Amino acid sequence: MKILVVQESDWVRRCPHQNHHLMERLSRKGHEARVIDYEIMWKEHKNKEII
Predict the structure, then answer these.
(1) What is the pLDDT at residue 47?
(2) How far is CA 25 from the centre of its chain?
(3) 3-state SS record for the chain
(4) Under a CB-based contact definition with an 8 Å cutoff, are residues 49 and 43 in contact?
(5) Could you tell me which residues are beta bridge partners of residue 6?
């Protein structure tokens, strides 16, 4: 199964490990997991660069 996860998080400050571990376990069972992550406070950032 191909899985796409889109999440709004701050990996450095909030560490969403539960989602990370779930995707890791599913990939070990043969599933293909991709994650799109963007800044949690993206609307409030003055510098709104894509990359």
Answers:
(1) 67
(2) 15
(3) CEEEEEEECCCCCCCCHHHHHHHHHHHHCCCEEEEEEECCCHHHCCCCCCC
(4) no
(5) 36
Residue 30 to residue 19: CA distance in whole angstroms: 17
10 token code pair: 């701050």
What pTM was estimated for this model as a whole? 0.56
How far from 22 is each of 8, 41, 45, 51, CA to CA, in Å? 16, 24, 29, 26
Q: Is 36 exposed, middle or buried (0-12, 13-18, 19+ CB in 10 A)?
A: exposed
pLDDT at 38: 74
* pLDDT tens string 1-48: 999 988 877 666 666 666 678 888 999 999 999 888 776 766 666 666
Q: Count how many residues are written for the chain.
A: 51
